[in-house]
From TrEMBL:
General function of this protein: Hydrolyzes acetyl esters in homogalacturonan regions of pectin. In type I primary cell wall, galacturonic acid residues of pectin can be acetylated at the O-2 and O-3 positions. Decreasing the degree of acetylation of pectin gels in vitro alters their physical properties.
Classification via Pfam families: PAE
Highest classification ranks of the organism: Eukaryota, Viridiplantae, Streptophyta, Embryophyta, Tracheophyta
Gene Ontology MF terms: pectin acetylesterase activity
PANTHER family (UniProt xref): NOTUM-RELATED, PECTIN ACETYLESTERASE 12
Biological-process GO terms, alphabetical: cell wall organization
Gene Ontology cellular-component terms listed: plant-type cell wall
EC numbers, comma separated: 3.1.1.-
Signal peptide span: 1-20
Name the UniProt record assigns to this protein: Pectin acetylesterase
Similarity comment: family membership: Belongs to the pectinacetylesterase family.
Domain of life (superkingdom): Eukaryota
């Protein structure tokens, strides 16, 4: 039976979320990411992990949009995992102009002042073996996202008092964690979800270069395969967004040179133009009908002035036959984008035909009795099999509606 996850939010909170979504959905918080820390019933008593500010970051100019110190949440590994590290890069959209970045710096996405002092560690960050079989006793770190350019910008706007220092935050965080024992790691995994999944791709080889060749180092991008797709009006909503992010935040200097040598910087912010050149083993976990991309890239309100896509955008069950054909075309575009990537023996792939976004952090989708599967293999086991070289993992689901294990996101 297909399990539909329906979010119910208090009216006042919902009004705020709707306002944020329709004002900033191309740049800021989608409804999905606004509810990122909603804890599923499966893990009703999750581990809460405190925020650590990086006090050495200020002197390096490695600060959030508003100039506050960046931070992370770290739960120390033990036993067989004492020298194993997983770094999870937080997601949360982007800001592509002064207006949206000024808005963002008054939220947890742009200032450590507004960050939760504790967050739940679930899914790939869970400390319970029954919830996270391969990584439960590792050092598990969640690096907070407060720059608005997937940890890649390096510039400022003095007039608006904005610091675009994502690249410096990345460097300061890695330096701090190396000093706290990560330099002794015998295995490490750089992971991230959404904008953090994009960051995990862009920083993958840099992460590999932190360690000796004897260290097993791999990367996992969850819901980070943002496609350079045409929206329902024939426009380029997400390309326009990315162009603004790259130009405003000085991202071009920190993108992989192997890409920028032959493509424009905005194109090199799209994973499809980078993944074939990454030297480090990379696993791509993505829903074929990614909920964020449907809502904010393919059929955003700006590209759908008459609201034809409104109901479909919120609930796939309300999509017409022609809308489903359009979404099947999007899935085909995704599969074409990963063809070359999937040829590499070392890379991994899990593309399920769900209407979902970020499946590694939520307990119900990562590893539970009824979590999503392809060929009877849940996501956590697929990622573990790939990371530890137990078996090659390159699985692509049959098209919607064949998969009955999906936890599809439905918005009311």
């Amino acid at each position: 039976m297909k399990l539909l996850w329906v979010w119910v939010v208090l009216p006042f909170a919902f009004a705020q979320l709707v306002t944020a979504f329709f004002d900033f959905n191309e740049t800021e918080l989608s409804l999905i990411e606004s509810l990122e820390y909603g804890v599923s019933k499966i893990n009703y008593n999750p581990l809460m992990v405190g925020l650590t500010l990086i006090h050495t970051a200020g002197a390096k100019g490695a600060v959030c949009l508003d100039g506050t110190l960046p931070g992370y949440h770290w739960h120390r590994g033990y036993g067989s995992g004492a020298n194993s590290w997983i770094i999870q890069l937080e997601g949360g959209g982007w800001c592509n102009n002064i207006r949206t970045c000024v808005y963002r710096k008054k939220t947890r996405r742009g200032s450590s002042t507004y960050m939760e002092k504790q967050i739940p560690f679930t899914g790939i960050l869970s400390e319970k073996a029954e919830e996270n079989p391969d990584f439960f006793n590792w050092n598990r770190v969640k690096l907070r996202y407060c720059d608005g350019a997937s940890f890649t910008g390096d510039s400022e706007n003095k007039g608006a008092q904005l610091q675009f220092r994502g690249q410096r935050i990345w460097l300061a965080a890695m330096e701090d964690l190396m000093s706290k024992g990560m330099r002794f790691a015998n295995q490490a995994l750089l992971s991230g979800c959404s904008a953090g999944g994009l960051a995990a791709i862009l920083h993958c080889d840099r992460f590999r270069d932190l360690f000796p060749r004897t260290t097993r180092v791999k990367c996992l991008s969850d819901a980070g395969l943002f496609l350079d797709a045409v929206d329902v009006s024939g426009g380029h909503t997400i390309r326009s967004l990315y162009s603004g992010v790259v130009g405003l935040q000085g991202v071009q200097h920190n993108l992989p040179r192997i890409c920028t040598n032959h493509l424009d910087p905005t194109s090199c912010f799209f994973p499809q133009n980078v993944i074939n050149h990454i030297r480090t083993p990379l696993f791509i976990l993505n829903a074929a009908y990614d909920s964020w991309q449907i809502q904010s890239s393919i059929a955003p309100p700006s590209a759908d002035p008459h609201g034809y896509w409104h109901d479909c955008r919120l609930n796939h069950a309300k999509c017409s036959a022609s809308q489903l054909r359009y979404l099947q075309g999007f899935r085909t575009q995704m599969l074409n984008a990963i063809k070359g990537f999937s040829m590499s023996r070392e890379n991994g792939l899990f593309i399920n035909s769900c209407f979902a976004h970020c499946q590694s952090e939520r307990q119900d989708t990562w590893f539970a009795d009824n979590s999503p599967e392809i060929r009877n293999k849940p996501i956590a086991i697929a990622v573990g099999d790939w990371y530890f070289d137990r078996t090659a993992v390159k699985v692509v689901d049959c098209p919607y509606p064949c998969d009955k294990t999906c936890h599809n996101l439905v918005f009311r």
